[in-house]
Amino acid sequence: MTLFQVKSGQATLGYDPTQPRHFMPTEWKIYNAGKASGTIIGGNLSTFGLLRGTPYAPQVNDYVLFLEEAEEDDYHDFDRNLAAILQAYPNPKAVLIGRFPKECQMTPEILTYILDKHSLLKTIPVMYDLDFAHTQPLFTITIGAQASIDTDTLSIHIEE
């Protein structure tokens, strides 16, 4: 995959669609096992956090948090933002975390260290390295839809 190319003295960012693309296999991981269902809320953690305290913040009872970070945020930002979101939304039925871009410098050890700080996350289903976020491949999350999570089958079912 060509990430940068120069043609006729002009730089073009992006990939060259004429070149073959090679996708690496992905593997969803489990921090804490279980099954849960609820209304999907969340998104980019930094952006979602801006809704706290506003009339636009989701007001739901049974919810599943879908969280992810962008390239410009590192693992320190994730650590701080996760703590804030779990205070604003203290009773999630499950927490699902998208794959971190390489720029975040997140490692499995750092993520485990961060998640271990929150005893709640040891009592509900938590999966990470999922195929949503600012990475490829990705699937689209429908905020406000109902989701069922089963870590035994590594499945997420989003209902219409």
TrEMBL record:
This is Muramoyltetrapeptide carboxypeptidase. One of its GO terms (molecular function) is muramoyltetrapeptide carboxypeptidase activity. It holds the Pfam family Peptidase_S66C. Keywords: Carboxypeptidase, Hydrolase, Protease. It comes from the Bacteria. Its EC number is 3.4.17.13. The keyword Hydrolase applies. InterPro entries: Carboxypeptidase_A_C_sf (IPR027461), Peptidase_S66C (IPR040921), S66_fam (IPR003507). Residues 37-149 form the LD-carboxypeptidase C-terminal domain. It comes from Streptococcus gallolyticus.
